[in-house]
Amino acid sequence: MRLILRSYGSVLQRAEIKVDILLGPPLRCVAPSQWFLVTQGGAAHLRDPVFFTMSVPQLNNMNNAKLIDILQKLSPKELAKLSLFIGSKFFNRNKKVKKLFKILKHKLINNQTITLSKNEISHQVDPKHIYDERRFNNLLSKLLHLVYDFLAYQYYAERSDWQQQAILEDLFERDAGRHVKGITHKWQLLQERQPFRDASHHLATATLQGALDRHELNSNNRRYHEHLQLQNDHLDVYYLIEKLRMACDMTSRNTVIQATYLCHFLEDIKVWVENHPGYLQHPAIKIYWLSLRMLEQQEEEDYHALKLALQEGHQVFPTYEIKTIYQYALNYSIKKINSGQSHFYREIFSLYQSMLAQELLLVSGQLSQWSFKNIITTAIRLKEYQWTKDFIEAFQLRLAPEEQFNAVTYNLGALYYAQGDYRNALRHLQNVEFTDTSYHLGAKIIQLKSYYELEEEEAFFSLIEAFRKYLRRNKEISAYRKAANAHFIQLAKELFVLKIKVKMRGKDALKYWRKLQKAMDETSPIANKDWLQGILSGFRKEVL
C-alpha cells in the first residue's frame, strides 16, 4: 500500500491517511535516497521539508507463503529430519536460514498458526538490521529450495535402484571395475525384494542387466552371456506395460471428457500380444490388457476377468496406479447402471469394499467426504443398512475434521430415511445449515420426502416455499442443478396434491394422474426422478 505523508521542518507533523504501522525494525523509504525511521510515536526525521510518498512494504501474513504451505504438509517426523538436513553444513552453511527454520518449526510442531508478518519474523531472525523486503524474500527462497532439496534427497534415499545405478555409472566413469560385481550383486538382491512388478521394476531390471553387460565388455569377456538378452526382454515388458497403461488412460479420458487422444502403434501392439500370449503371464500386462478390452469393447466378460485379476493387483502396482484401474472398473459399472442394469450396484459395492480393504481410498490417512457419501449411497441402495451404520461409525474419524459434521449428519439422515425412520431422518436434518450446497440440496430433498411419507401437509408445503427461495437466491448452484431441483419441487408438490385427491376420492384424480405422468415424461432434468416415478406408479391402481 502507499502512504502519503506531509512533512514540516525536521519532524513529521501529520499524515494525510491514518494507518496502523507495525512496530518493529525500521522501514526503508523509497523517497529520494533517504532512510525513514518509524518509531512508536510515529515520528519521522527528514533532512528537508518536502512532500514525499513512502511505500510501506506489504507485510503479508506468512501463512500465504509457499514455504509455509509445504512445511505444513510435512509430518513431525519429517520436520525433525529436515531440521537435521538444514543443520548439516554439507547442505547448508547459512545461519540465518537455520534460524528462520527453527522459528517456523517451533510454531508448526506446536500447531500454532503463523500469524507473524514478514517484518516481525525478519526482526527475530536478524534484529540488528533494518527490514529489507528483497533480502528477506531471498532468505525465504533459500529455505524453500532447501526444503525442495530435502524432499528430493528423501525420495532418492527410498529408491535403492536409483542409488545403485548412480554408483555404477560413477564407477564405470572412474574405471573402477573391481567394485562393480559387489554393487550389481547387491542391486540384484534388492530387485528381488521389490514389492511390485510394475513397469518401473522392469525398467530397473533392464538397466541392471545393461550394467552387467557393460561390465562383461569392459572385462574383455567376449563369450556369450545372457545380460544383453535379459536387458532387451525386460525393456520389451516395460514398453508394453507403459503403452497399455497410456492406452487405457487415453481411452478413458476420450470417453469421460470427450478428448481426442491417439495412442500410436496401439493396433500393432494388440496384434503382437495376441500372437505372443506368453506376455499375458506378466500380471501388469494382463491387468492393463483386460482394462483396455473392457474400456474399448464394454464386454461384461472382460470386466469380470479384470475384477478377478485385480485381487493380485496390490502385489503388482503401487497404490496410485491400482487405484486408477479400480476407477476404470467403477466407471464401467456406473455406465452399466445408467443403461438400466441395476444389478451393477452390487458390483460397485464389491469394488468399494475391495478398495477400502486395501486403503486405496485414503489420502494421507483421510477419506474424502465424497467417497464417504458415494459408498453410503451405494450400500443404502442395496439395503445394506447394518453395514452402512458400521461403516459410518468406523470411518467418520477418517474424514477431515472440517468435513465431519456435514458428511456424518447428512448420511445418517439418508440412512434413517431409507430405513423408513422418517422422524429420525428429520431430527438429524432439521435446523442444520449445511455449508456445502450439495449436502444442502440433498438434505432438503430427504426432508420433503419424509414429510410426504408422514403426510405432514403444512410442513411439506412450507418447505417447498423455503426450498424455492434457496434455489432462487443461491448463486453457487449451477443452472442445470437449479432446473433439476426446481422441477423436482414442482412435481413433488403436485404428487402431494394427487395424494390428497386420491385420499378424498376426488373424481378428477385419474385426469390429474395422467397430467402428472405426461409432465414427468416431458420434463428434463429432474432430480430424484426414480422416487417421483415410483410414487406416481404406486397411484396407478388407485386411480384406474
Structure explained in plain terms:
It is a single chain. The protein has 544 residues and is mainly alpha-helical. Helix content is 65%, strand content 5%. It has helices spanning 66-72, 76-87, 95-109, 118-125, 133-157, 160-173, 180-193, 199-218, 227-256, 266-275, 283-297, 300-309, 319-338, 344-357, 369-381, 385-395, 401-418, 422-429, 437-454, 457-473, 479-503, 509-522, 529-538, 540-543; strands at residues 2-8, 11-15, 27-28, 35-36, 51-55, 362-363, 366-367. The strands form three sheets. The chain has a three-stranded antiparallel sheet with strand order 2-1-5, with no helix packed on it. Helix 11 (283-297) runs parallel beside helix 13, helix 14 packs across helix 15 and helix 17 runs parallel beside helix 19 (437-454). The chain is flat. The relative contact order is 0.03.
